[in-house]
């Protein structure tokens, strides 16, 4: 059994000691049995010491395992997720947040206050899509087509075959985008970007951005630069 403690301002108000558990610290080191872990100001202040601070709240975790909190790096958040994520040891989540930001910020606040048992939330509010090389995209497409043909020969169930078919379609699209990108004609943009965002992309992407897009960004005085 894992011991799961979620970040909360409540923890910052007290000293907590986890006593007797087996620690797996994630570094590759051997598990440490019968540990004493002191948590102060929402951070681990010591491991293995026999000195327990006066007035600390002691939790006996004998027979349990303590591991670092896990990350979910791509999460489309739903209202029933928090406790489910916590149950599986996920204490931080990178939330895809194109929509419903006010609601998500309320969820974030509830978690921070300890009213909702769930992971810390970090938001991706916008995406920059930069594609790989043509050679990489072509190899990905070849692999997808090979897998699709294999499933057809094996008369795979409808589900796996349909999934493989979608994978081929996606690989074909990425190859087309990679070719356009490598030619320097355009950067495949799926959103509207502000002039500042366009400037950032122009600096970090070696293929550059289509000059029409740069011109639109300079000319537009509103909050968004539309894709030409």
Using only C-alpha atoms, the radius of gyration works out to 25 Å
CATH class of one domain, please? Mainly Beta
How much of the polypeptide forms β-strand, as a percent range?
15-25%
Q: Quick one: CATH superfamily of one domain?
A: Urease, subunit C, domain 1
Specify the helix fraction band: 25-40%
For the termini, the CA-CA separation is: 55 Å
Please trace the helix and strand order, writing H or E for each element: EEEEEEHEHEHHHH
| Largest β sheet strand count, sense and barrel closure | 5 strands, mixed
CATH domain topology of one domain: Urease, subunit C, domain 1
Give the mean pLDDT.
Answer: 75
Low-pLDDT sequence parts: 188-192, 211-228
Features:
228 residues, alpha/beta, Urease, subunit C, domain 1, Translation Initiation Factor IF3, five-stranded mixed β-sheet, 36% helix, disordered C terminus
Verbal overview:
- By secondary structure, the chain is of the alpha/beta class.
- Among the domains are: 11-66, Urease, subunit C, domain 1, CATH 2.30.40.10; 70-124, Amidohydrolase (Translation Initiation Factor IF3, 2-Layer Sandwich), CATH 3.30.110; 186-228, no CATH class.
- The protein contains six helices and eight strands, in the order ββββββαβαβαααα.
- Strands 1, 2, 3, 4 and 5 form a five-stranded mixed beta sheet that branches. The chain has a three-stranded parallel beta sheet with strand order 6-7-8.
- The longest helix is centred in the last third of the chain and has 25 residues, at 158-182.
- The chain is elongated.
- Residues 188-192 and 211-228 have low confidence and may be disordered.
């Amino acid at each position: 059994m894992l011991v799961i403690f979620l970040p909360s301002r409540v923890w910052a108000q007290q000293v907590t000691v986890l006593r007797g558990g087996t620690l797996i610290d994630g570094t590759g080191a051997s598990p440490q049995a019968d540990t004493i872990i002191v948590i102060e100001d929402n951070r681990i202040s010591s491991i293995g010491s026999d000195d327990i601070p006066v007035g600390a709240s002691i939790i006996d975790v004998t027979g349990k395992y303590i591991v670092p909190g896990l990350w979910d790096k791509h999460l489309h958040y739903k209202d029933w997720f928090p406790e489910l994520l916590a149950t599986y040891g996920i204490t931080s989540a990178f939330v895809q947040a194109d929509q419903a930001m006010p609601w998500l910020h309320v969820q974030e606040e509830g978690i921070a206050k300890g009213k909702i048992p769930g992971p810390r939330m970090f938001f991706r509010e916008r995406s920059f899509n930069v594609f790989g090389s043509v050679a990489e995209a072509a190899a990905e497409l070849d692999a997808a087509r090979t897998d699709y043909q294999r499933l057809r020969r094996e008369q795979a169930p409808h589900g796996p075959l349909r999934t493989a078919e979608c994978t081929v379609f996606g690989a074909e699209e990425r190859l087309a985008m990679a070719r356009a990108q490598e030619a320097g004609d355009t950067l495949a943009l799926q959103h509207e970007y502000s002039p500042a965002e366009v400037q950032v992309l122009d600096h970090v992407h070696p293929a550059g951005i289509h000059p029409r897009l740069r011109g639109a960004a300079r000319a537009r005085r509103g909050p968004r630069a539309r894709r030409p």
